[in-house]
Amino acid sequence: MSGIHRGSMILVIALVAAGARAQEAPPAPYMDPQVEEVLKAMEQALTGASQFAFTAEVTLDELHPSGIKIQRAGRRTMAVRRPDRLVTDVDGDFGHRSAWYDGTSISVLDKVHHTYAVLDTNASDIDAALDFLADDYDIVLPLADFIRTDVHESLFTGASFGLYVGLTRVGGITCHQVALANEFIEWQVWIDAEGDPLPVKFVITYIDEPGEPQFVARFVSWNLAPELPDEAFQFSPPEDAKKIAASEMAAGIQTWEEHQPCQPCQP
Fold first, then answer.
1. Predicted confidence band of residue 253 (pLDDT cuts 50, 70, 90)
2. Cβ(26)–Cβ(11) below 8 Å
3. What is the pLDDT of residues 30-86, one digit of tens each?
4. Cα–Cα distance between 19 and 25 in angstroms, integer?
């Protein structure tokens, strides 16, 4: 083990033990080759499946004006059929919404306010649809990194530091744990080391935000061969739902997000 590698390991352990203590400086640039190895294996498992579905329990820290961190929680489900079908649902403190992408348009239903919006897009695939949401409406879909065709690149790009922590256990599953960082955020991924190399847990720490809040996703189920007919991706508005402008729907999502650290938690 090189001196850089050993020093980096000590740094990560110290950060975990210190909890919310702020870093004085980001770790020196370093990338463990095993990080890229396990991320590419995960990418092959996800992109090799023409369709899949997962459910994740997610939490996000919200900094109260008193300085106390309040943890918000919810459940996210996603079903993907490549190249151009996606349906997702969120339920919990982040809202109660569903969204459908049918290869032509993106429909979003707010189940609390009984409103919906239809966003016309020329996006030809899921990646383009995600970019469209981000570029045109400033909406970033939580866990979108794991449904892109370039999973490895999405999680790897922007990191100035990467460490293969080793084998750890999450919920009884032996996982490869990797930790990456830049001067703004730190993110960790736990990947199943016993079965299909699928993500088991994902954590983002916003080290440049007051209190260093965290976004945590625990993947509780995966299905790499679900039954996903065309009807699963087609939106039919409920009779009591009111259609609103896409900009109004996006503004409602963004208003909630203004009180949260950086990204997640959209439609």
1. confident
2. no
3. 999 999 999 999 999 999 999 999 999 999 999 999 989 999 999 999 999 999 999
4. 16
Residues linked to residue 69 through DSSP beta bridges, in sequence order: 63
| Side-chain half-sphere exposure of 163, counting CA atoms within 13 A | 23
Rounded to the nearest 10°, the torsion over CA 75, 99, 247, 116 is -100
Reference 174, options 38, 47, 83; nearest CA is 38
Look at phi and psi of residue 42 and say left if phi exceeds 0, alpha if psi is from -120 to 50, else beta: alpha
* CATH fold of the domain at 25-257: outer membrane lipoprotein receptor (LolB), chain A (2.50.20)
pTM above threshold 0.70: yes
How far is 184 from 263, CA to CA, in rounded Å? 13
Average pLDDT of the segment spanning 114-141: 94
Distance CA 127, CA 223 (A): 21
CA distance 153 to 149: 9
Mean predicted confidence (pLDDT) in 151-172: 95
DSSP-assigned beta bridge partners for residue 217: 58, 202
DSSP category for residue 232: G
